[in-house]
Design a protein that fits this description.
By secondary structure, the protein is mostly helical. The protein has a single domain, classed as Growth Hormone, Chain: A, CATH 1.20.1250. It is about 80% helix and about 0% strand. The protein is built from 18 helices and no strands. It is a multi-pass membrane protein. This is MFS transporter. GO terms for molecular function: transmembrane transporter activity. Its main location: membrane.
Amino acid sequence: MQTGATSQGNVLSVLRSLSPRARLFLWAMALTRLTGFMVFPFLTVILSQQLGASIVEIGSLFTVAAFVGLGTSPVAGFIADRISKKFLMQLGVGLTIASLLAMGLIREISVYYGAIILMSVAGGMLEPLLRSTLGELAETDAQRPALFHLRYYMVNIAGAIGPVLGLWFIQTQSPAVFFIAAASFVFLAGVIHFKQPKLPTPADPLNAPVRRNIWVSVLGHRMFVALFVANFLLVFIYAQTDEPLTFHMIDRGVPDIAGIVTVLTVTNTVVVLVLHGLFMNRIMAMGEGLAFRVAIGCLCLSLVLIAANGAHLLWIWIAAIAISTLGEIIAMPMFLTIVDRIAPAENRNAYFGIYMLSNTGGALAPFLAASLITGFGGTTLFIGAALCCIPLAVVGAIALRHTTQTPETESTDAPL
């Protein structure tokens, strides 16, 4: 990782070093994640226990929604590189607000299905543009890695509080949680409108040859392609500790699933807060090859623990989530930092949008996991996921070998 980022200091000193605009963006993004954690971890429980959907139906819904959102991301990135991206960001926020209000006002399964799909479209618009905006708020190149780590850290602070607050709303079946989440996105809309960095608008918007040249540039970038494939595998394997684990609990008839989901979500976040907060500098300074090996080892071990937990002991699930979180702390910000480092300034939004397609691995996970659990059981699923760490280690090694190249030796137009 870029050692220059470590000179920014610990979490508090990094935050103080930012401009007021950057801090406001970070707080707005963290607030929407806070309210999101009050809603999203419990959607599986709401659909299953309150609206009567099966785990296969839920898995299919989440898979379709994820693919719709992923397909939106590169389109949004292409458009944002050709025209002002503020309109696209505001449109994404507006769609999210409408979806949250619909779920709060109408308790019908068809409305929830439509709202979840619509939120995926909105998320596909917002996520790559918010990430590229974060890079634009950096005052120096050395500050970019620190910004991504700080964003990651603040999002997880929200994750520590959100599920605890959301649990009461879910248990009482109160729709107020959806209205609170909608209000947080209204605040984000205001921040985007008044604090969006002003960048020059390209003179040749939406030109078809330009779009084709972007694809040539991306596909010819060896580092980016290898990183894309590695992240695809990483996200697919890591996603097994999310909805698939909940499906596994539902299939086994584990009691108080909502409470367990809350404990595991908070476990994930607390580990991030403690380890990332205390050792952020050391993690950022860790060599990328070593960091990746540690991350994959943690992920594999966590899946083996889940597979071996036939007695449904809570402490084993907690230990597995804590270990997998160690890998998450290292790998996720590291990959985003590399993308931000290698993306050309004139195509930054498009690169982030295309990179979002690598999350297809996570989009496949709910449906495949639900099908495998139904047919073969959760133990088979998690053992198979652990074995998938082997090809991930191979592809990741190839990707990180390219990151050691200098800008002079890594051409964005070089053939694969």
